[in-house]
Amino acid sequence: TGSTRPERILAAVQRKATKGDARSVVNTIDQYCRYQEWAMNVGDEKGAILDSIVCEVKPSVMLELGTYCGYSTVRIASMLPPNARLLTLEFNPAYAAVARQVIAWAGVEDKVVLIEGPSGDWIPKMKEEFGVTSFDLVFLDHWKDRYLPDTKLMEECGLLRTGSILLADNVICPGTPEYLEYVRGSPRYESKYFRSHLEYTRVEDGLEKSVFLG
Ligand SMILES: O=C(NCCCOCn1ccc2cnccc21)c1cc(-c2ccc(F)cc2)cc(O)c1O
Ligand SMILES: [Mg+2]
Question: Which of 64, 102, 123, 150 minimizes the number of CB atoms within 10 Å of its CB?
Fold first, then answer.
């Protein structure tokens, strides 16, 4: 049996990136996915927008839905202060296994809690299992048809406070129409679209930043 794409990305990181250097890991994955084989990382262009929002919000407790190989996990964690925590949720055990190794190679494992399983099961357990009061920032990058139900679930579970920020990837491609309609139409959110491109391509995509107003 041959290797999987995530395993080949990990091999590139372990071969080319400097151990303990998060930026080197990020750059290695971008290089590999732009010139060797495409993969669904948020990528360098949308990643720069993600960076600016993480820097602006300076979250103490952050949630990422959709770890994949850990590219955005490493990108975010490298910008967090030592006492901040990034909880990242991955459904696919094979992806999670690769992500753990990418996160370790980057040297950011102390700021990251990687959880395996479906968002619908884990979101209601965040408070009791991880002592979360509320999330300062949530990066949505998992199944596109789960963005809306999981946002409603976070509201219902009291995981969003006035000022909590949702940042959603892929609102144009593959697209999250129901989610966009909800956050743009709801008086409980102040939404803004950051136009960009699908990772490593010229196809339009973007990030939607939505502030929860309580
Ligand atoms: O599908 C994508 N991401 C999601 C992965 C599974 O996530 C599953 N998953 C991860 C936690 C988690 C928790 N609960 C349930 C499911 C959960 C995704 C897809 C594309 C894309 C764009 C154009 C194409 F032609 C093909 C693909 C781009 C992206 O940037 C993406 O993020
Ligand atoms: Mg994405």
Answer: 123
The residues, ordered by sequence, that sit 6+ positions from 119 with a Cβ below 8 Å of its Cβ are 65, 89, 91, 142, 146, 150, 153
Query: Model's pTM, two decimal places?
Result: 0.99
User: Of 90, 169, 205, 208, which is the active-site residue?
Assistant: 169
Considering only CA atoms, which residue is closest to atom 22 of ligand 1?
Answer: 174
Phi, psi (degrees; rounded to nearest 5) at 103? -60, -40
Tens of pLDDT along 57-93?
A: 999 999 999 999 999 999 999 999 999 999 999 999 9
Exposed / middle / buried, residue 194 (Cβ in 10 Å: 0-12, 13-18, 19+): middle
Residue 121, sorted as left (phi over 0), alpha (psi -120 to 50) or beta, turns out to be alpha
DSSP sequence for 176-209:
-HHHHHHHHH-TTEEEEEEEEESTTSSSEEEEEE
C-alpha of 40 from chain center: 11
